[in-house]
Amino acid sequence: MNKNRKVELSTIIGKGSKVKGSLYVQGGIRIDGEIEGTVESDGFVTIGSSGIAKADIKADECLISGTVEGNVVCKDAVELDRSARMTGDIVAKILKIHTGAVFNGNSSMNSGTRVPKKVIITNDVEKKD
Length: 129
Hints:
The chain is an all-beta fold. It contains no helices and 15 strands. The strands form two sheets. Strands 1, 2, 3, 4, 5, 6, 7, 8, 9, 10, 11, 12 and 13 form a 13-stranded parallel sheet that branches. A two-stranded antiparallel ribbon has the order 14-15. The termini are far apart.
């Protein structure tokens, strides 16, 4: 993911704004406020350093600098900037985690868009949810 690349933004959720529900965006979206629910974009999703997303995110690419609590599924790449705080699972072809980022979850680096099932191991027997 190239930070100098020009990204077309069609939607901005500004600092101090709060959105609750499902959001579908054509093009790119930048979130500097708070969102709870789901975010889906056919472009680029950016969670700014002041952004808080308690949401599942589905997009082509995603750059996280703020806080995300939910699963992220991207066709291409997910990048966790040094200020990122991510709790949830990530599915993407490319995953880039900068020094200082916090990531608690599972990652699957493939071309599919399936979130990996959680695996529980009890008494040497593997169980899948």
